[in-house]
Amino acid sequence: MIDDAVRQLRGTPVAKEIEPSLQFQISAFIPDPYIPDTYQRLSIYKRLSGCEETEEIDAIRAELEDRYGPLPEPVVRLLQVLQLKVMARKLRILKIDEKERVLSFVFDESAQVTENDLLRLLNTFKDRIHFTSHFSFEIRIKNRGWEDLFLDVAHCLTTLQKGKE
Known about the structure:
Aspartate Aminotransferase, domain 1
């Protein structure tokens, strides 16, 4: 926030915040029996929502395992979705949506997607990828479980991230 104010005073353009929307056909939440205390559960949700780096999510994962024991499957999926969201935010992706064996990706118009980024995607996903506009594409997915879907999305985001490092 302060950095944005300083940039504005210097006349440097300030990029608007992106809050990606991720829609997957899974249950991703913290079950009441895992963290019975509502205040503690809400506190964890709040901390997770503020994570800007995947390492922060990893630290909360370790804390949860230490305090409450092995993670139930819905919590594992929640943490995975949040990792994808952090990656998507950095790439200025507005939306990732799973419907009928298709993953749709929509970029913000300010996203810096280069020709090399698109070529890497084409080489990685070959005949499974379809560009629907200048700011969106779709990837056909095989009818597999969440773990494979998560890996496909993470692989796509990592492929795009390679050009940004």
